[in-house]
Structure formats: structure tokens, C-alpha cells
Amino acid sequence: MNAITKKTISYFEGILGMTLAVLCAITLRFAIWEPELLQKIFLTIFG
User: Any stretches that span the bilayer, and where are they (predicted)?
Assistant: First the structure.
């Protein structure tokens, strides 16, 4: 049971890491190619 739990946790950590990496890549891409759009998105979320 403990081994299964550890595997599940590491599996979710992998998914979380991949999601964060993808989000970072998308953010960087917008920051380089379309800074104005990124600003609008940030203002929409945090404004």
C-alpha cells in the first residue's frame, strides 16, 4: 500500500511538473512574441 501511494504521489508530481513547464514555456513564448497580449492577460487575471 505504501509503495503504491508513493508511486501515485510521484506520478502526480510528474504531471504537475510537466504542467508547470508547459505554462512557463507558453508564458515565455507570449513574453517574447506578444508582450502586449501577455500584459492584457495579466491585467485580466490580477487586475
Answer: 12-32
pLDDT one-digit tens code per residue, 1-47: 688 888 888 999 999 999 999 999 988 888 888 888 878 888 998 87
What is the DSSP code string of 3-46? HHHHHHHHHHHHHHHHHHHHHHHHHHHHHHH-HHHHHHHHHHHH
Report residue 32 as a C-alpha cell.
517574447
Contact 3, 14 (CB under 8 A): no
d(CA 17, CA 11) in angstroms, rounded, equals 10
Phi, psi of 25 (to 5 degrees): -65, -45
d(CA 12, CA 8): 6
